[in-house]
Design a protein that fits this description.
The chain has about 200 residues and is mainly alpha-helical. The chain has a domain at about 60-190. Helices cover about 65% and strands about 10% of the residues. It has helices at about 1-15, 60-95, 100-120, 125-140, 145-150, 155-165, 180-190, and strands at about 20-25, 30-35, 35-40. Strands 1-2-3 form a three-stranded antiparallel β-sheet, with no helix packed on it. A hairpin with a 2-residue loop joins strand 2 (about 30-35) and strand 3. Helix 2 (about 60-95) crosses helix 4 (about 125-140). The two termini are about 45 Å apart.
Length: about 200
């Protein structure tokens, strides 16, 4: 009961501040001054709270843990793809003609194959689908669009047809607010170093 009276007294005291009180604004902090007293009012940064529900079934928990594992495996490749795209775009802008552009693209394809071919072959089907979506997230363009832009329409069509044979779709878009919301939450946690 004493606590309730204390809260009521505090609220009434807060509302009884006279109209003559001065307000000083400093960035995100408001200082309320009344005679000799100063009361700070501070705005805090927004935080994101992500909860792992303990009440979910064992099957859903297992699926979530698999998704976390798959995103952890695929995400570094997507980050690398985004970084390499920036590097090769800068090189392609400096190209003087189409022949030099083709040579740069052949060299880039050979470097990527020798460096990442073996590790990409070890990805599971689900990790491959997640990688295609994360490449769209990192580059802002689908894998098909990147192939079309960098290698031409025929090569993009060929790779898309080959991917469709194996159950992939290079035209898949990343939807962070829809069906890929869980992937987005996991990626944010990875970026913040919490996973």
């Amino acid at each position: 009961m004493k606590q309730l009276w204390l809260v009521i007294t505090f609220v009434l005291a807060a509302f009884s501040v006279k109209a003559s009180a001065g307000y000083v604004f400093m960035q995100d902090t408001v200082l309320i001054q009344k005679k000799a007293d100063t009361i700070p009012s501070v705005s805090l940064q927004e935080i994101e709270i992500i909860s792992r529900r303990n009440s979910i079934s064992a099957w859903r928990r297992w699926r979530l843990n698999r998704l976390i594992h798959n995103v952890k495996v695929a995400y570094p490749y997507a980050k690398t793809a985004g970084a390499l795209l920036k590097i090769y775009d800068a090189r392609l802008e400096k190209a003087k003609n189409d022949a030099e552009r083709k040579r740069i693209m052949k060299q880039a394809e050979q470097e990527i194959k020798t460096r990442y071919s073996n590790s990409l072959k070890r990805l599971t089907f689900t990790q491959g689908i997640i990688l295609i979506k994360l490449i769209d997230r990192e580059t802002g363009n689908t894998s098909y669009g990147l192939l079309q832009q960098l290698r031409g329409k025929f090569t993009a069509f060929f790779y898309q047809a080959f991917a469709r044979l194996w159950g992939y779709n290079l035209k898949t878009r990343y939807d962070p607010h829809g069906k890929d919301a869980q992937i987005e939450a996991i990626v944010r946690l990875i970026e913040k170093g919490k996973l």
